[in-house]
Specification:
The complex is a heterodimer. Chain A is mainly β. Chain A contains no helices and 10 strands. In chain A, strands 2, 4, 5, 8, 9 and 10 form a 6-stranded mixed β-sheet that branches. A 4-stranded antiparallel β-sheet of chain A has the order 1-3-7-6, with no helix packed on it. Chain B is built from no helices and 12 strands. In chain B, the strands form 3 sheets. In chain B, strands 2, 5, 6, 10, 11 and 12 form a 6-stranded mixed β-sheet that branches. The chains are: A mainly beta, B mainly beta.
């Protein structure tokens, strides 16, 4: 079946612009995670959605970052007024339920000039 | 807060040999999950193996096995009969029982040499 998909694959933007990154989880998966991975680094947790519960936003680095998940499926990560330090790969993952294996998308590589 | 430590930034192993990657973690929770993920140069993160903390038996998956020591909070990954395709970054990860507090370690870059 279809895995987790993310779009765009690559995004180049200018400092100060807003960007939206999209994640389509595996159908039926109730949990969805966003991570950030800087070059050669590990994964930094950003935000976690589980069903209809309030999201865990504890990993968002600043109020320029926000995310929503519509209808318990597709999720959008928005970065406002992008900065050069926002350049990274943004990974999305979904899982069937809490504690289960996370299935990752291919990521979106964001470059802020 | 949970932490995950991988003390080996880089490792190499000869093809067909066995290698062990180390991982330690810190948590006050009693029930949780531990994972090893692999990220090849293609960037796609793939699950290697998963362990439930309430299970005493070590998880195995073909050539991959873990040594889970709950009291010591240690979760090492053993790769037997290493293959060139095993070359990747390996991340150890902790997940709370209810999906919260998901933390990845910094990773170990493994190179399998021909």
């Amino acid at each position: 079946g279809a895995g987790v998909s993310q779009s765009p694959s690559n995004k180049v933007t200018e400092k100060g612009k807003d960007v939206e990154l999209r994640c389509d989880p595996i159908s039926g998966h109730t949990a969805l995670y966003w991570y950030r991975q800087s070059l050669g680094q590990g994964l930094e947790f950003l935000i976690y959605f589980q069903g209809n519960s309030a999201p865990d936003k504890s990993g968002l680095p600043s109020d320029r970052f926000s995310a929503e998940r519509t209808g318990g499926s597709v999720s959008t990560l928005t970065i406002q007024r992008t900065q050069q330090e926002d350049s990274a790969v943004y990974l999305c993952a979904s899982s069937p339920s809490t504690g289960e294996t996370q299935y990752f998308g291919p990521g979106t590589r964001l470059l802020v000039l | 807060a949970q932490t995950v430590t991988q003390s080996q930034p880089e490792m190499s192993v000869q093809e067909a040999e066995t290698v062990t990657l180390s991982c330690t973690y810190d948590t006050s929770e009693n029930n949780y999950y531990l994972f090893w993920y692999k990220q090849p140069p293609s960037r796609q993160m793939i699950l290697v193996i998963r362990q439930e903390a309430y299970k005493q038996q070590n998880a195995t998956e073909n050539r991959f096995s873990v040594n889970f020591q709950k009291a010591a909070k240690s979760f090492s990954l053993k790769i037997s009969d290493s293959q060139l395709g095993d070359t990747a970054m390996y991340f150890c990860a902790f997940g709370g029982f209810f999906g919260q507090n998901f933390v990845f370690g910094p990773g170990t870059r493994l190179s399998v040499l021909p």
